[in-house]
Amino acid sequence: MAEAIITPHVEEPKKKAPAQGDETSLITGSEAIAVACQLADVDVITAYPIRPYDTVMQYVAKLVANGEMDCEYIVAEGEHSQFEIVKHASACGARVFTGSSGVGWMYAMECLTVTPSLRIPMIAMVGNRALDDPKIPSRAKVDAFLPRYDRKDLLLHPDNPITVAPQANEDWLMEIRRGTAAAMERSAGVIREAYADFERIFGRKYGNPFFEEYMTDDADVVLVGMGTLSNPVRVAIRQMREEGKKVGFVRLRWFRPFPAEELAKSLGRFKAVGVIDRDFSLGSPYHSGVVATEVRTALYQSENRPQVVGFICGLGGREVTLPDVRKMSEIVSQAASGKPQPATQWIGLRE
Amino acid sequence: MATTDRELAELTHHKAPHKLDLFKGVKKLPLEEYFTSGHRTCQGCESALVMKLMVKAAGPRTIVLGSTGCMYVANTTYYSTSWVVPWMHTQLGSSGAAALGAAAALKALMRKGKFKDEPINVIAFCGDGGGADMGISGISATLTHPDYNCLILMYDNESYANTDIQLSGSTPYGAHTTFSPPGKTKRIMHHRWKKNFAAMMAAGHPTCKYVATVCMSYPVHAMNAVRKGLSIGGPTFIHSLDPCPKGWDYDPMLSHELGELAVLTGTWPLYEVENGVVKLIGKTRDIADGRVKRLPVRDYLLKQGRFAHFTDDDIDYFQSKVDEMWNKWVVPGVIPFQKHLDEDRPPA
Ligand SMILES: Cc1ncc(C[n+]2csc(CCOP(=O)(O)OP(=O)(O)O)c2C)c(N)n1
Ligand code: SF4
Ligand SMILES: [Mg+2]
User: In whole numbers, what is the pLDDT of chain B averaged over residues?
Assistant: First the structure.
């Protein structure tokens, strides 16, 4: 049925001279994201300053100014507009990109509450800290990976005069939420497919899409974390391994959908688990960070339930140091040997 | 070297807007409707008439984005819609962003050869709460973007109507709303004067080519304002005053008459600012030129239950503020600065 609708799409002209092979260059993570937008042929981008994500938009601005990227680059007057502009642009058929950090992202939250149920794709980068990622794939490979953005019968266009986001109250809200939930349930499979395609086309392999394990095979205890913890944790683990301590690391890649069963199965192998949160949720169970709460929830259903110790660490961009990681590992080892530990501990706090 | 208009157009890849001819009179209006049955607005709702005539003027090649408010909730109850043209909801304060997003998408997709290149109108509407209060920063930003052809229309029923008639920054002085009920010790709970919104948009955004005030009691002018707003190029703004039987508390059959009285009492001046030139319209112009005498505001206020608690003093105060608009403002009815030329000159 969707195919029958006349859409305003026309055959896309050949894109400008794609660089053939992959290129290697030493650039920051922020610049890499800007280049990714260029390669993905993003149509509408909205920017607003807030550190640290805004360096991405500075690179985008340069690409646009130098004629290296063809998009509508809009400097919005606040994050709420920033996110709402791309929402509407995406509904009209444009591939979009935006981003923010910290309070900026919170300022946009009101419009973000409806975007998921409308199923309007938008990529928003929420910047904590940039990573280095030096390899730039060719345009041809990116085109092979990314399908043309086609909203089919959901396109907002005079050729397809639909009404989007009508007002729903208690009479329909549950059914709509169920639809969104079903899409989220399906997303795990889509994510696996996308990782497989990515590996096939770009030749880069990430293993399990949902979390990555480091030195866990023979570990007694593991630390679990998300985002920018990798570097200090890996270095500390290598040091501790030299001292004969069997510590491993599990890094979550996806917070939603949360890989509960798979993660519980993996964590059930260890004697104790330490969860490092670089966030904090006031008044939450055991006064934890959000990852610890999710990990405990995931483990509750499983047969093997190791001790879970939560750590609050590196808030506000404070560095997570090697001694911090060693201290957390030590506490988790204590828990593994049967010495009860407080459910949540703050690490690296000035007393 | 200064940038010429043409250079600016090239710099911003400006797209020519839709050219829409002006209507010559009510008999020349098209019969087709693009906002039809299926809505559940109140009887006598002038805002619904705004929707109907706005999109009748714009025609079928139009995308409409609508902020939260009566014109969202009552017109697009899930599983029904009164819109024949593509329509999408936007958040309460987001009419400016919605217009910009849709216009930017069309522009990028057509320029890059992904969509057929054709004129498509983009209209975003908001209520007075969503526009003059919450959405002002987004609307203001959009009006500074010369690159995008879009029209923002603020339908002003002078309250947050959908949530049960609360006062907004666009509610007139003294009006009874559910947040400003006349009480035993305070008769007047709302002492703020209505924002002079259209003129604020015009004065504050010198590159915005078209701003107009309209009222659906004068429908042909209103529809032509929509056409001008869509044809002139760049972002434009229209502010309509809409009698609302529920919020203003009157018999629905008086809607049209109340719109006329708002204009004839000088409370709601009709004007356009086109490429920086102010033009008073219709009866407003007649009043300014002395051809028609302004009616006393009493005739307008006392037909509405929301002013039923007004004493003669309250009415006199209201009248004095309207008189000020006409007698003292540097551009009568439009720009509220007063000139004190004599005081400016030091004594000889
Ligand atoms: C961010 C936010 N705050 C509050 C509301 C509740 N709300 C829904 S409709 C509405 C009234 C909007 O008033 P106005 O823009 O004047 O439109 P009207 O209802 O008068 O047509 C309000 C306050 C909302 N939807 N979103
Ligand atoms: S409350 Fe006013 S604006 Fe809302 S539907 Fe009724 S008449 Fe129209
Ligand atoms: Mg209102």
Answer: 94
Mean pLDDT of chain A: 91
Q: What is the pLDDT of residues A147-182, one digit of tens each?
A: 899 999 999 999 999 999 999 888 899 999 999 999
Nearest ligand 2 atom, CA B74: 5
Q: Which CATH code is given to the segment(s) A211-346? A: 3.40.50.920
List chain B residues with CB under 8 Å of A172. Answer: 78-79
Ligand 1 binding pocket includes B226 (Cβ within 6 Å): no
Q: What is the CATH number of domain B30-335?
A: 3.40.50.970
Q: Whole-model pTM?
A: 0.92
SS3 labels along chain A: CHHHCCCCECCCCCCCCCCCCCEECCCCHHHHHHHHHHHCCCCEEEECCCCCCHHHHHHHHHHHHCCCCCCEEEECCCHHHHHHHHHHHHHCCCCEEEEECHHHHHHHHHHHCCHHHHCCCCEEEECCCCCCCCEECCHHHHHHHCCCCCCHHHCCECCECCEECCECCCCCHHHHHHHHHHHHHHHHHHHHHHHHHHHHHHCCCCCCCCEEEECCCCCCEEEEEECCCHHHHHHHHHHHHHCCCCEEEEEECCCCCCCHHHHHHHHCCCCEEEEEECCCCCCCHHHCCHHHHHHHHHHHCCCCCCEEEEEEECHHHCCCCHHHHHHHHHHHHHHHCCCCCCCEEEECCCC
Sorted by where each begins, the domain ranges of chain B are 30-335
Closest Cβ–Cβ partner in A8, A162, A168 for B115: A8
Question: Same CATH fold, A211-346 and A29-166?
Answer: yes
Q: Which of B75, B154, B162 best tests ligand 1's pocket when mutated (most atoms within 8 Å of CB)? A: B162
* Residue A167 near chain B (CB below 8 Å): yes
- Cβ <8 Å between B83 and A161: yes
> Which pLDDT does position A20 carry in this prediction?
58
Which superfamily does A29-166 belong to? Thiamin diphosphate (ThDP)-binding fold, Pyr/PP domains (3.40.50.970)
pLDDT tens profile A275-327: 999 999 999 999 999 999 999 999 999 999 999 999 999 998 899 999 999 99
Percent residues over pLDDT 90 in chain A: 79
* A316-345 residue pLDDT tens: 889 999 999 999 999 999 999 999 999 999
Domain extents in chain A: 29-166, 211-346
- Helix (H) or strand (E) segment spanning residue B331: strand B329-331
* Burial zone of B212 (CB within 10 Å; 0-12 exposed, 13-18 middle, 19+ buried): buried
Inter-chain residue contact A10 with B113, CB threshold 8 Å: yes
